[in-house]
Every structure is written in structure tokens, then in C-alpha cells.
Design a protein that fits this description.
By secondary structure, this protein is mostly helical. The longest helix is centred in the first third of the chain and has 39 residues. The chain has one domain. The protein contains 21 helices and no strands.
């Protein structure tokens, strides 16, 4: 089977389970919105969960798994099975001990972490203390989910994607159960969500064990911090901590800055980011996850031409899926947030403010998706320096853009960080876009990151076939431009400010999405897009396999 087809099949499998997980994730956020809305408790929990979640993204997903896969693939391809398993055991043992230390430090330093990452909470009675408490409860999640990521990296290296893709579903189920069954019976209801996070982490880890046993993988305690595999992985992992997770770092910066904006700003960004992550996780993250083992195997063989061809294929598929998704989210931002969250403590005004941020995030969906695909290509080449350089540039662009676009904020006198933000924004803020300005800046930063990655990757592996990619981008953008007004017209059939009539609003939203897909596909067929035949061929192959 060709690597392109293997990438497509693996991406399809990961996408399916990621789709199910994201559905449960939206249900989870809808339930949280129903009980807690965008008030103080919601802001406190989202900040508390954001801190370990950030570490999860760039220690677990962004660094550990992507550093582990190239090293383990090299051992598995060029050395014996026994050596490969010993290398995996040494790395697992080293990481478990290191993560235990990080977790203990995080719990002890929760007050300091809260004052740094949410300076606007320091002067608000009760909000700071609640955030500190929730941070202490949620921080051990980083230990659990990082071990999950290590197991997932091992399984993905062996082309087993099912268990790692399914595991996030159990986090969402645990948090939903906690919100419905635990929170209403606690003196501090939002504390139940933290319990749900811990339960979800345990379930995710347990789920990885059966497939590892079936594949004959037994990890034993091997304390060899000087093992060659550990040293190689750490050399890769250090820069990856920053390079692979620049988007998440930018989101954290948004959270820091949003904490000094009016109450609810943190929650608006959280809910908008969760919707934004839906298409991103279904396709972009899935494609990057599926492509990395293939890139690593091609790089290990020195087959750079094959890797270039696979990367171009993945980028064209990204254009085909992500561009219409970005247009749809931008046009349907209010209907989406209204259907998903407008109930209970979450009103229409909150839906509109969340949609404002969602529209700004959607402008960067394509860029973020491309970054998720380009960074693994560098890591497959064991080049971690380049993503760090581009990530640093993107970080600077996001910080500067956020301070310009968020508008001036008043000093509180309670936090040195908050007062510094107030001083800077008083001098350089030209647009008062509040929390939406933070989201827009994140999109701009992602575009900066993507552009630099493309230019520097071309220097590493030669021409990327951009002359073939540019028409693909233009064709998909034109199809999206035709699709947008049609989707907007269909969405106008409902009054989204009216409470109730949920079934009708869901039907209109579904009709708008379905119509948009049909229009986009029709334009692609008329223009003879090769991506259509690739998707059809993949579906035909899947049907033959099942038959």
C-alpha cells in the first residue's frame, strides 16, 4: 500500500473517532454552559483547566509523542525488536519520574501559577482563591495524560491509531457525568468538574493497555536516563515544547490578557476555541497524527522525494477540507453558538459575544491546520530548531497584535502583571475589539508561523510543488466564496435571538451546513478538482475492505 493511501486511511480512522470525541466535547461544553454560563465559576475553572491542558498539549501531544515516534520508528526499522522495546521502556520510566516531579511542583505552585496566568483575578474576591483550588485538583491530569501520550506514540508508531483516538471520548464522558451527577450535590459545584478531569485521565490511561498487550508490547521499569533513545528524544523534545505548541501558547496568552477584561471574557474565548477545535481536531490534527509515522519512515529510509510527495498530498487534502470549514464557521458563528450553548445560564448575549470570538478564530483555521501538518515534517527530519524559530516569531506577533487589538484596560493595583498590561495598552491599543481582538491576533500569528515554516521547509527538502498547491488553494477558496452567501441565506430562515424552538433552529443550522457542503462539492466537481476523486477513491477502497 502506498504511503499516501496509508496516510489517508489512518487519517480517516483517526478523524472518525476524533469526530465522535468532538461531538461529546461539544456536549460537555454545552452542559458546562448550562450549569455555569460565563460567570465567575466558569472563568475560574477554564483558567484552572487551561494551565495543565496547555502542558498536555506541548509536553504530551506536542512534544512527547512527536519526539518519541521518530526515535522509536528508527529503532523498530533499523534495529531489533528487543532493542526497540528496551528503548521504549527506558523513555517511559524516565518520563514517568519527571512528570511526577512536575505534577507535585504544579500543585504546590498553584497560587503563583494563577497570579501569573490570570492576573486579572487577583483583585476579585473569591475568584482567585477558587481558581487556585481548582488548579490544584486538575494539575495531576498532566501526569496521567502524558503517560497516555507516550503509549499513544508507541501505538501510532506501530500504525495502531484506534485506542489513542478513542481515549479523549472518555475524558468528555467523565466530565459530563461529573457536571450532571456530582456538581449539583457539592457545596462548591464547579469543583465536581475538576473531579471529572481526574477520572477522565485515569480512564484514558487504562484504555491504552489492552492494545499494547495484544501487540506484545510490555513496558518494564528501566531506569537508564543515559540511554541513547532517552537522550535523542530529549534533544528533540526540548525545542518541541515551544515549537509544536505555539498555537496553545498563544491561546494561553489570550487567557492571561482576557483575565483583565470584563468578567466572562475568558469563558467567551474558551467556548469559541472549543468550537474552533472541532474541525481542527477532526481533520488537521488527525492528518498530522497519521502523517508523522509515514514521514518518519520515509525520512529514516532517506526517501525525501517520497516524503515531499506525501506532504503535498496532505496539504492539498487540507485545502479541500479546511477552507470550506473556515468559511462555514465564519458565516454561521452566531447560529452555531446559539444552538450549542444558548440555554440555562447561557443567554443570547453570551452567544453573540462567543460568536464574535469564533469568527475571528475561523480566519486562522487554514493556517493553524497547515502548521499542524508542517511541524511533523520537520520533526520527522529530526529538525527541531526551525519550528522553534518560527514559533518565536509567531509568539511575538500574537503578543503585539493582542495588545494592539484588545483595547485599553484600567489598572487594578492588585497585580503587577495586570498593571503592566494596562500601561502598555494605554499607549499602543488602536482598536477596541476586546476578547475578539485576542482571537484575531491568534489567527494572524498562525499565518505568520505557517508562512515561515513553508519558506524554511522548502530550503530543507527542495521545492514543495507550490505551483500545484496554489491552484488547489485558489479553487477551494473560490468554491468557498460561492458557498458563503448561500449558507448565510439559509441561516436567515431562523431568528437566533429567540429562546426555545431548539429543534427548528437545529434543523435550519443542519440545512445550512448541508447546503453549503452540496454547493462546495458541486463547484469542485464542475472545476474538475482532483481532491474529489481522491476522496471518492478512498471511500471506494473502504467499502471494498468492508465487503
Amino acid at each position: 500500500m502506498s504511503e499516501n493511501r496509508q496516510i489517508a486511511r489512518a487519517a480517516g480512522l483517526v478523524s472518525f473517532f476524533t469526530f465522535v470525541s468532538r461531538i461529546f466535547g461539544l456536549v460537555r461544553d454545552s452542559v458546562v454552559g448550562y450549569y455555569f454560563g460565563t460567570g465567575m465559576a466558569a472563568d475560574a475553572f477554564f483558567v484552572a483547566f487551561r494551565i495543565p491542558n496547555l502542558l498536555r498539549r506541548f509536553v504530551a501531544e506536542g512534544a512527547m509523542s512527536t519526539a518519541f515516534i521518530p526515535v522509536f520508528t528508527d529503532y523498530w526499522t533499523n534495529r531489533s525488536r528487543q532493542e526497540a522495546l528496551k528503548a521504549a521502556s527506558a523513555l517511559a520510566c524516565f518520563m514517568a519520574v519527571s512528570l511526577a516531579v512536575v505534577t507535585i511542583a504544579g500543585v504546590l505552585l498553584s497560587p503563583w501559577l494563577t497570579s501569573v496566568f490570570a492576573p486579572g483575578f487577583v483583585g476579585e474576591p473569591g475568584k482567585y482563591e477558587l481558581t487556585v483550588e481548582l488548579t490544584r485538583w486538575t494539575f495531576p491530569y498532566i501526569f496521567l495524560v502524558s503517560l497516555v501520550a507516550l503509549c499513544a506514540g508507541l501505538l501510532n508508531s506501530l500504525r495502531h491509531f484506534t485506542a489513542p483516538a478513542i481515549s479523549p471520548i472518555f475524558l468528555n464522558l467523565a466530565m459530563i457525568a461529573a457536571a450532571v451527577l456530582v456538581c449539583p450535590y457539592l457545596a462548591v459545584p464547579v469543583r465536581g468538574l475538576a473531579y471529572g478531569v481526574l477520572a477522565g485521565g485515569i480512564l484514558q490511561l487504562v484504555l491504552q493497555i489492552p492494545p499494547m498487550i495484544r501487540l506484545g508490547i510490555r513496558l518494564t521499569p528501566v531506569w537508564q536516563p543515559g540511554h541513547e533513545a532517552v537522550r535523542r528524544a530529549l534533544r528533540l523534545m526540548g525545542p518541541m515544547v515551544f515549537g509544536a505548541a505555539v498555537y496553545q501558547i498563544n491561546i494561553l496568552i489570550d487567557t492571561v490578557l482576557a483575565s483583565v477584561l470584563p468578567t466572562g471574557s475568558v469563558s467567551y474565548l474558551w467556548y469559541a476555541d472549543r468550537v474552533f477545535e472541532f474541525p481542527l481536531g477532526i481533520f488537521a490534527v488527525a492528518l498530522g497524527t497519521a502523517a508523522l509515522p509515514s514521514f518518519a519512515a520515509q525520512a529514516a529510509r532517506g526517501a525525501i522525494d517520497e516524503m515531499r510527495h506525501s506532504l503535498l498530498f496532505a496539504m492539498r487534502m487540507t485545502n479541500f477540507i479546511v477552507i470550506p470549514a473556515a468559511v462555514g464557521i465564519y458565516v454561521l458563528a452566531v447560529p452555531i453558538t446559539s444552538v450549542l450553548f444558548e440555554r440555562g445560564a447561557f443567554g443570547f448575549d453570551q452567544a453573540v459575544l462567543t460568536a464574535w470570538a469564533l469568527s475571528a478564530f475561523s480566519l486562522g483555521l487554514w493556517s493553524v491546520s497547515m502548521v499542524r501538518l508542517l511541524v511533523p515534517a520537520f520533526y520527522a527530519l529530526e529538525d527541531t530548531r526551525t519550528p522553534v524559530i518560527t514559533a518565536a516569531a509567531a509568539f511575538g506577533a500574537n503578543l503585539l497584535g493582542s495588545l494592539i487589538l484588545m483595547g485599553p484596560v484600567p489598572p487594578t493595583g492588585e497585580s503587577a502583571v495586570g498593571d503592566a498590561i494596562a500601561t502598555i495598552t494605554a499607549h499602543i491599543s488602536f482598536f477596541d475589539q476586546r476578547h475578539a481582538g485576542l482571537a484575531l491576533s491568534t489567527s494572524i500569528a498562525a499565518t505568520v508561523n505557517m508562512t515561515l515554516l513553508l519558506l524554511l521547509l522548502r530550503r530543507r527538502i527542495g521545492t514543495l510543488g507550490l505551483d500545484e498547491l496554489a491552484p488547489s488553494f485558489a479553487r477551494n477558496l473560490a468554491a468557498g466564496a460561492v458557498m458563503g452567501p448561500v449558507v448565510s441565506y439559509v441561516a436567515g430562515w431562523a431568528d437566533w435571538s429567540q429562546h426555545g424552538h431548539l429543534l427548528y433552529r437545529v434543523s435550519v443550522l443542519g440545512a445550512a451546513v448541508t447546503t453549503g457542503i452540496a454547493v462546495f462539492a458541486a463547484v469542485q466537481i464542475v472545476t474538475g478538482a482532483s481532491e474529489v476523486s481522491a476522496v471518492v477513491d478512498l471511500l471506494r477502497q473502504q467499502l471494498k475492505r468492508r465487503a
